[in-house]
Amino acid sequence: MITPSTRLLPLASIVSALFLSGMPAAQAAPQQSPIDITAQNTKFQQLSPMLFDLSSDTTLSVINNGSPGVFKTAARANVDAGAGSVTVDGDTYQLAQFHFHTPAEHLENGKVFPMEMHMVFEDPSKNILVVGRWVEEGASNAALEPIFSDLPKTTTQTHVFNHFDLNALLPSNLESFRYDGSLTTPDFNEGVKWIDLAQPMQMSAAEINAYSSLFPNGDAREIQDLNGRIVLTDVPGFASAVPEPETYAMLLAGLGLIGFAARRKNGRLGKPGLVGSIA
Ligand SMILES: [Zn+2]
């Protein structure tokens, strides 16, 4: 005895395969950053581990790279070559610098944190991975306090800090949100791997004010369209219920069948543009 649902499966597979084969065209849509990370656009799954190797005693060169044009840049801490790396999915990226934005660039369910830190890593092929971390107001940050109480006010100053422990920038809990996006400053290059850590870092109101008073108009880019991107997360309970993969394929197949029927009814099936867009 064949039930209607099992009879549908082969056709569903074919139609969903057609949909999947159409994906490269969909990926031509802009994949810009930052984004609002919400329960609706995230999917829960096991994520590959991040293996950080960070110096606990390194030198930082902190600069203020000013406010060129509309898009403000930030105070930035350059690190020595080899001071830190992260390995994800077998690819090792070297830490080049970390910097801050005010207010935060990424939102969490619409929430705006007062600041956000970006650790910028690059692999030998110049692929960029950014580890982001929100800053919330709370206790003073012992590691960052010396820097934030002495931020360079102008682009001509470089403040050097010795004996910085880069591990102090990371939380104990490395649960994260991951998606493909772009740089948030010109030229907004895409192909950037984003890993936004879920656990915010705390900084005191005075530390946050020290930074935001340097950039009174903020140095955060506005939220960008997702254009169909899904954010992956291993934060338990964050993502709202997402259909199982089989259900999702059936849903796509169903939509495909409706579209197929509609086009046939209108006598438009076979027109080059429509067929081309599916295949
Ligand atoms: Zn940034």
Ligand roster: zinc ion
Task: Report the mean per-residue pLDDT as an integer.
Answer: 82
Q: What is the CATH architecture descriptor of the largest domain?
A: Roll
Overall number of strands: 14
Please tell me what the overall shape is. globular
SS-based class: alpha+beta
- Indicate the percent of residues in helices: 10-25%
Report the order of strands and helices. Answer: HHEEEEEEEEEEHEEEHEHH
What does it look like?
This protein has helices spanning 4-21, 23-26, 145-148, 205-212, 245-265, 272-278; strands spanning 36-37, 42-44, 51-54, 58-64, 75-79, 84-88, 91-101, 107-108, 115-122, 128-137, 158-164, 176-182, 190-203, 231-233. By secondary structure, the protein is an alpha+beta fold. It folds into 2 domains: 4-30 and 243-278, no CATH class; 36-233, Roll (Carbonic Anhydrase II), CATH 3.10.200. Strands 2, 3, 4, 5, 6, 7, 9, 10, 11, 12, 13 and 14 form a 12-stranded mixed sheet that branches. A two-stranded parallel sheet has the order 1-8. A hairpin with a 7-residue loop joins β12 and β13 (190-203). α1 (4-21) crosses α5. The two termini are 34 Å apart. It binds zinc ion (ZN). Zinc ion binds next to β7. Residues 99, 101, 118, 184 line the site of zinc ion.
Please give a handful of descriptors for the protein shown.
Carbonic Anhydrase II; disordered N terminus; binds zinc ion; alpha+beta; two-stranded parallel ribbon; disordered C terminus; 279 residues; single chain
